[in-house]
Specification:
The protein has about 250 residues and is mainly α. It has helices spanning about 1-25, 30-35, 35-45, 45-55, 60-85, 90-100, 105-115, 115-125, 135-150, 155-185, 190-245. The protein folds into 2 domains: about 1-55; about 60-248, no CATH class. Helix 6 (about 90-100) packs antiparallel against helix 7 (about 105-115). The protein is rod-shaped and about 90 Å long.
């Protein structure tokens, strides 16, 4: 899973580098035409969306970066949590009868071949089965803490994107308003067109900052619920294993 995560981050970095090159290409109309990157972006996302993005100004680029950054971690987290989830009842139905019959090695082999944190915790506990139930419980507690720390990985990065993207949007809006009022000052007269255009461009960054944050926040909440479910499965499996060893 760590290798998959590294590949995803590498792809995200490459996308950011490509988008940064587009930013430099947009510095002049000639450069944009010569690279053809703008044409590709318009083909993929539509001319209206690309133009609106470019009209948003400089702060649209860091917003886009955090969108890709958060999405990369969301994809990795979805893959890792999907991989971690198993059918708990099927797993327990396989190992509990073996434990009651004191067939620890067979239960260890099944746990070793079963993916996910639940089986990893049980496996760590059964390795200490010859030292008694207390040693098994202690080993499973330690393993559960390690597995839960792995389950929580990626949440900080997603939370960073959720928080920073809207803030960058608001900062872009403030910057755009400053530019708009500066244009009014230079014109020495209040022109509704100047004000309306400036405010419209300024609010684009806020719009896209929120567009990035809302879906990532929803995905974050879903993943948190999935992690809570896995933690409950770990606790339930640990209790059942302990009970089976006591009964044996």
């Amino acid at each position: 899973m760590r290798n998959k995560f590294s590949k995803i981050l590498m792809i995200a970095v490459l996308m950011c580098m490509m988008l940064t090159s587009l930013a430099y290409a947009q510095a002049t109309e000639t450069a944009a035409k010569s690279t053809g990157i703008k044409a590709v972006a318009e083909f993929l996302f539509g001319r209206a969306l690309v133009n609106e993005f470019l009209n948003g100004g400089t702060f649209m680029w860091p917003i886009l970066f955090f969108a890709i950054y958060g999405l990369a971690y969301a994809i990795w987290k979805f893959i890792s949590l999907t991989y971690a989830k198993i059918n708990l009842n099927d797993y327990l139905n396989k190992i509990l009868p073996l434990l009651k019959q004191k067939k620890i090695n067979e239960a260890l082999e099944i746990s070793k071949k079963t993916r996910g944190p639940v089986a990893a915790v049980v496996y760590a506990g059964l390795l200490k089965a010859d030292r008694g139930v207390d040693a098994v419980e202690k080993s499973m507690e330690n393993a559960a803490m390690i597995e839960m720390s792995y389950l929580e990985k990626g949440f900080v990065e997603m939370s960073t994107s959720i928080t920073v993207a809207p803030l960058l949007g608001f900062l872009g809006t403030v910057d755009g308003m400053i530019v708009a009022f500066d244009a009014i000052a230079k014109a020495r007269s209040v022109d509704a067109t100047i004000v309306a255009t400036g405010i419209k461009i300024a609010l684009i960054t806020t719009k896209y900052g929120l567009i990035v944050a809302f879906p990532l926040q929803f995905i974050y909440n879903v993943f948190t619920t999935m992690v809570d479910g896995l933690v409950i499965d770990i606790q339930r499996a640990s209790e059942k294993v302990t009970e089976a060893l006591i009964e044996s």
